[in-house]
Every structure is written in structure tokens, then in C-alpha cells.
Amino acid sequence: MTVKPNGIKNKRNHLFLLLALGVIALASAYSVYYYFIGSRHISTDNAYVGAEIAQITSLTGGTIKTIHYNDTDTVKVDDILVVIDDADTKLALARAEAELAKANVELDRTKLDYERRKALSKSGSVSGEEVSNSENAYKAAQAVFNVAHVVKEQATLDLNRTVIRSPVEGVVAKRQVQLGQRVQQGTPLMFVVPMLALHVDANFKEVQLRKVKIGQQVELISDFYGNSVVYHGKISGIAGGTGSAFALIPAQNATGNWIKVVQRLPVRIQLDPEELKKHPLKVGLSMQADIDISDDKK
């Protein structure tokens, strides 16, 4: 049995027609998608959760007496994190108060002496030199009193600083201090991560950022929860430079084999605290960010 050439040709034309219709359908679908969605949104999966982490340091020296929280513990504002032994600071405060009281007595004595001699100078009972000397003594006592007052205030402050409180609500991380450890002023003790004040740093390609403005709406999905949880955020800022520009050793493309690399610019996205309460995130988690740029007048 032989196949007629016209039959083969008709079959081939039919297949080409189906292929052309398929290409047209795909092109039409892509055009519709790009017009209604693609041209109005930009997205990236190069995004990570960040936070302004609070570093807890000692503001006075001493021996660690009590530690109330460990890593992963939740703390609230003003919760006591660490207590430093206050025996030395109490003695310093008592000594400062005694010096202040002594300076106050001397100040009162020199003031009374100066006022008495000043009054007697009007009748000529005392010389001008005696008045001048008593005035200088009074001023010196005043200076000593002021110094003693400052020392007392510093001792009070040091005593208050033996109790270290949390400045933010969050989760304790990287606790470095141990019970009985001797710390100095400025010693790092731990970190507190503010879990309700998280943001996302999304690194977009430079060619994507033409219409990106502060205040635009962003939808985000975390790899931690998957597509079942969608976060809604707002652009709060755009970085002043790329990551390579702020690198410790920036690239210097001075040779002839230079190859252009598309740079990425960090965009900060503020998350909704209410959504973070329902679905908590952790610093460093990967995110997918989609910015609605349909309204570029924001």
C-alpha cells in the first residue's frame, strides 16, 4: 500500500498549522501575563530576615552574681537579665556620700566666714585682703563640693548599673557571660533579638529597580512556612550602595578582561508585627519577595 504525496503534504501542513497555533497561543498567554502581572511586579528569592539586634554589655565592672535567662528564652522590656555583685559599688557610694557630707560642712563654714568678713569690711573692722582670702576659700570649698557631688552621682549610677535589664522584647541569643565571671565596663554579655520588629533585606538586580519606591507594597513567602503563609510588608528604604561597593576589598576592574556583572541592591522591607505574632520568623531565614510596582507614584 502506498501513501499519496498529497496526503503526506496535507498532514505536514496540518502539523505546521497546529504548531503555529500553539506558538501564537503561548505568545498571547505570555503577553497577557506580562501586561497584567509581569510588568507590574518584580520578585527575588535573594532575600533574608534581619533585625536590629540589641547587644547587652556591662556598664560597670564586677563579678556576675545572677543570670536570669539563657539562649532561646523570651524576655520583655525591663526584665532583669544579669545582676552584678554590688558590694564594691555600695562601699563606693557610702564613701562618696561621706565625702559629700564633709565637703558640705566645709562649704557652709567658708560661706559663713566669707559673709561675716564681708559685712565687717563695711565698718573697716577687717581688711580687704582678709575678705578676698575668705572669698577664695569659699570658692574653693564650692568646687570641692561640686566634685564630691559628681562622685556621689557616679557611684549611684554604678550601683544602679549592677542590675542589667532588657531594652527590648525578644529572644536571648549568643549568651557569652557565665556565673562568677569578672567583667569590665563594656564587656559583651548577650544579644536580644526583637522578634516583633523584624525586617527583610531583599537583594534585587539593578535592572529591576527602575520603578521601586519607598512605601510600595510587598508580598513575602518564607521557606520556613512555605506558600501557606503570605506576609505583607512595605518598602522602608533602599540601600545607598551595592554589597560589592562596601566590601572590605572592593573589586578593581583595571585589566582588559573585564566582564560586566549585574549588581544587586539591598531593599529593606518592614514586616507587619501582627503577622509576625501569628507566624514568628527567625533572623537569617530565606524569603521570597514580590513588589507591586503598578503604582510607581508612591
Characterize the structure shown.
Helix content is 36%, strand content 26%. The protein is built from 4 helices and 14 strands. The strands form 3 sheets. Strands 1-10-13-12-11-14 form a 6-stranded antiparallel β-barrel. The protein has a 4-stranded antiparallel beta sheet with strand order 2-9-7-4, with no helix packed on it. α2 packs antiparallel against α3. The two termini are 73 Å apart.
How would you sum up this structure in a few lines?
The protein is an alpha+beta fold and 298 residues long.
Which percent band covers the strand fraction? 25-35%
Integer-rounded radius of gyration? 37 Å
The CA-CA distance between the termini, in Å, is 73 Å
Q: Strand-and-helix sequence, N→C?
A: HEEEEEHHEEEEEEEEHE
> How confident overall, as mean pLDDT?
85
Number of helices: 4
Low-confidence stretches: none
- The percent of residues in helical segments reads 25-40%
Largest β-sheet summary: 6 strands, antiparallel, barrel
Class inferred from helices and paired strands: alpha+beta
Q: What sort of overall outline do the alpha carbons produce when their principal axes are compared?
A: elongated
Spatial order of the strands in the main sheet?
Answer: 1-10-13-12-11-14
Count of beta strands: 14
